[in-house]
Amino acid sequence: MFIQTLTKNKLFAVNTTAVLLVTGITFAPSASASEKGWRYWGYYQAAPGAKTWTAAMTGPTVDVADGAVEGWSFVFSSDDVPSIAPAIKPDFNAICGKVKADKDTKRVALVIDYGSTAYAPTGEKVQKGFTTCVRTAKTSQGIDVLGMAVKLRAAKSGLICGINGYPKKECGVEIATPSALKK
Fold it and tell me: Within the chain, which residues score under 50 in pLDDT?
């Protein structure tokens, strides 16, 4: 009986210690979590018929269907500040409704949102966002759609650095969290 109680007490102590360690590490606020984040071009998608954006979990080297909407938004994000999807809604009919479908190509709506002055690179003016309808080959991927509509600047890794010259030089940089975004 004494050994069983001792074993149960040790097991309780070990489990409690493990829980405290895990929750202490998991829930301890990071001193730098709200101090810095990343500024970059975020990639979003809306499948045919969808009315909301979904953050893309892969890069733009993915197939897109006729009727899809591809979105790019210049964003800031950190552990405390989530990235923001394009402000322009993914409405395929509003963007591509006048472009007739045909059997040889697909139509993909494209939305470009240049983000906010709150996190714009110093000395650069935030451009006005826009939409366009891209008619492209059936085999085209998201990167092809983007490249047909805008001037791109990309890193060797494939990361999209600039769209139509914005930003001028940087590419996915770490910056201090803008005060306008702090809670």
Answer: 1-33
Q: What is the DSSP string of 124-159?
A: -PPPPPEEEEEEEETT-BHHHHHHHHS-EEE-TTS-
- Count other Cβ atoms within 10 Å, centred on residue 107: 21
Contact criterion met (CB below 8 Å) for 105 and 135 = yes
Q: Would you state the torsion angle of the CA atoms of residues 90, 122, 151, 68, taken in this order, to the nearest 10 degrees?
A: -10
Pairwise CA distance, residues 126 & 128, whole Å:
7
pLDDT at 122 (0 to 100): 96
Give me the amino acid identity at 46.
Answer: A
What's the DSSP call for residue 81?
S
CA distance linking residue 74 with residue 171, whole number of Å: 11
pLDDT of residue 132: 98
